[in-house]
User: What shape does this take?
Amino acid sequence: MKISDAAKLLGISTDTISYYEKEGVITPKRTSKNNYRDLDNRDIISLLICIYNRKIGYSMKESVEYVEGIPVSKITDILNKKIDELELEVKETKNLINYLTTLKMESEIDFYNIGNYWITVEPKCYLLPYAKISQSEICFTKDNPRYYAKLFEYLPFINQAQVTNVENICDSPQSVTEWFFVIPEIIYNQIPQEFLEDAKVVPRRHCLNTVVINEDWEYPNTEIFRDIFNYLKKHNIKSCGIATATYPNYYFQESGKKVRYAKVKVPIELKGV
Assistant: This one.
């Protein structure tokens, strides 16, 4: 069988067949009749085994190793390893589905709550330094690429939030804003301790919430907290702790402009709680 015909029959590319030939899995023979290189039954069977292993999830390198023969004593260990990998993938996929389901529900609610105010109980979380952002540059807080690379592994389950002390909200808007990673406790417990040295604990708390449209999302400043501060002042609500503003990682169009909205939270003191 010609290599091009085998590729069509097996649903793989001729480049894939060439790879397996290079690795010694198959040995096409050139025919004297038409000078084409043909695959015999043994080659086809070897390719089918490689395809089978690839469908299971093994790499091309592993599929080559396994078609060459596996010691009987290692088969169980190899299969157990693959089962563990697939179970981890299933767990991660379920976590992502749950995250997206929550994000969908929150997004639907957020659009209806622009300019509204409500109180929630926020669970314990942790803050880790991220960056200081101005109109001209992003200045990463830590001079350690490994720090950021490790934390970015946990996206989208951690957020980056603009953070300010409540006392600073009444001041004039600051053009340099501080940003932190906001890490749920369940994720915090999965991160190696060496990356958590500068973590700040944010205890369970009551928060006043609002949603604010931010047309100047490219140039963040503390003005994003102005409306909620005015609401606190008007209703004589005492604030405490660290205020945060998180931004969904997508944009939407409003009146022909690309804008983002910010979810602003300010810890508050409730009488009798």
